[in-house]
């Protein structure tokens, strides 16, 4: 009798705990069904790549530096600068000029669009940022670079004659007047304006062609598709300086700005042609002259450390031409 009673109690306890477990499971399932469909507890997937740049969960450091709301490019509605940006940006230049008057001339002339608003869970926008380092020589990266949706090149870095190592596709070229080169019809000219005169030069290059001199001689005009011109926002330059270069140097280098720009318009960023060669030599792949990014203007060493950290935190993949 005692055995039967114990068995009965055991069965009751088992049944009740199973019922409780089942109820809890059901309640949880209902919660997921109800709130999940409203996106309240479902994980937001920012893109369709295996790892997305803007996936905020995998790096606190990155999330603290990255501002998804920073204006990247100038357009007719966002040209007014915050006082602190305006002061900082104007202090970089020796030339005078009325910023508002100059910016007002930009958008009847160049496309006035909301660019790069096509991010989404179904897209995986891949970008190759190609710097000008000598470590590209002999790398055979050409086909890999060309495989990306966007291929961003910097300053004068040529493709002709170097296709095997650097590829032949260019979707964006980031330049300033002193580094500008002719582009084909499908490439975006992305101007990095360090001074008001740079914006004046851009306007002049597509209209009067009368500006031929900044602190050095500059081309009076260049071959480029006017409808693909973009101008980096001074606010963006200041943001890169503050958040990513952490105030080192006078302003960020073109390569560093291009890389951070890519982090804002791509879902996956592969970086080529940054850093020294295997022998520790810093030079361009297209000339023998030695280069240095550690000077009174750019903080090359700090930028390099930040780039290495971005790689460690899985935000970019560096291709150095050697292992
Ligand atoms: O020399 P230049 O500014 O035209 O090179 C473009 C960018 O490529 C640089 O701003 C730098 O970020 C990168 N670069 C590099 N190592 C080199 C040459 C260039 O990281 N040896």
From TrEMBL:
GO CC, one annotated term: Golgi cisterna membrane
Molecular function as annotated in GO: beta-D-galactosyl-(1->3)-N-acetyl-beta-D-galactosaminide alpha-2,3- sialyltransferase; beta-galactoside (CMP) alpha-2,3-sialyltransferase activity
EC number: 2.4.3.2, 2.4.3.4
Source superkingdom: Eukaryota
Family membership: Belongs to the glycosyltransferase 29 family.
Record keywords: Disulfide bond, Glycoprotein, Glycosyltransferase, Golgi apparatus, Lipid metabolism, Membrane, Secreted, Signal-anchor, Transferase, Transmembrane, Transmembrane helix
Natural source organism: Sinocyclocheilus grahami (Dianchi golden-line fish)
Record's protein name: CMP-N-acetylneuraminate-beta-galactosamide-alpha-2,3-sialyltransferase 1
Pathway, per record: Glycolipid biosynthesis; Protein modification; protein glycosylation
């Amino acid at each position: 009798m005692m055995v039967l009673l114990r068995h009965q109690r055991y069965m009751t306890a088992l049944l009740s705990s199973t019922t409780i477990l089942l109820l809890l499971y059901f309640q949880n399932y209902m919660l997921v069904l109800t709130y999940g469909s409203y996106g309240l507890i479902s994980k937001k997937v920012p893109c369709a790549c295996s790892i997305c740049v803007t996936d905020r969960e995998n790096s606190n450091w990155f999330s603290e530096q990255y501002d998804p709301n920073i204006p990247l490019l100038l357009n007719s509605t966002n040209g007014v600068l915050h006082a602190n940006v305006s002061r900082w940006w104007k202090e970089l230049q020796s030339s005078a000029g009325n910023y508002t008057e100059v910016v007002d001339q930009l958008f009847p002339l160049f496309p006035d669009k909301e660019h790069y608003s096509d991010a989404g869970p179904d897209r995986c926008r891949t970008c190759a940022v190609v710097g000008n380092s000598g470590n590209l020589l002999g790398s055979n990266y050409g086909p890999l670079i060309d495989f990306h949706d966007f291929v961003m090149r910097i300053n004068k870095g040529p493709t002709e004659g170097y296709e095997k190592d650097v590829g032949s596709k260019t979707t964006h070229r980031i330049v300033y007047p002193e580094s500008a080169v002719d582009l084909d019809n499908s490439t975006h000219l992305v101007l990095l304006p360090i001074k008001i005169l740079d914006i004046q030069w851009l306007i002049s290059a597509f209209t009067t062609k009368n500006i031929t001199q900044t602190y050095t001689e500059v081309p009076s005009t260049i071959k480029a598709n006017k409808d693909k011109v973009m101008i980096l926002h001074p606010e963006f330059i200041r943001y890169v300086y503050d958040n990513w270069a952490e105030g080192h140097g006078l302003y960020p280098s073109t390569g560093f700005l291009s890389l951070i720009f890519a982090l804002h318009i791509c879902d996956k960023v592969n970086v080529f042609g940054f850093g020294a060669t295997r022998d520790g030599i810093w030079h361009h792949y297209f000339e023998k002259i030695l280069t240095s990014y550690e000077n009174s203007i750019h903080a090359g060493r700090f930028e390099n450390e930040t780039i290495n950290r971005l790689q460690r935190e899985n935000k970019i993949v560096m291709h150095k031409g050697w292992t």
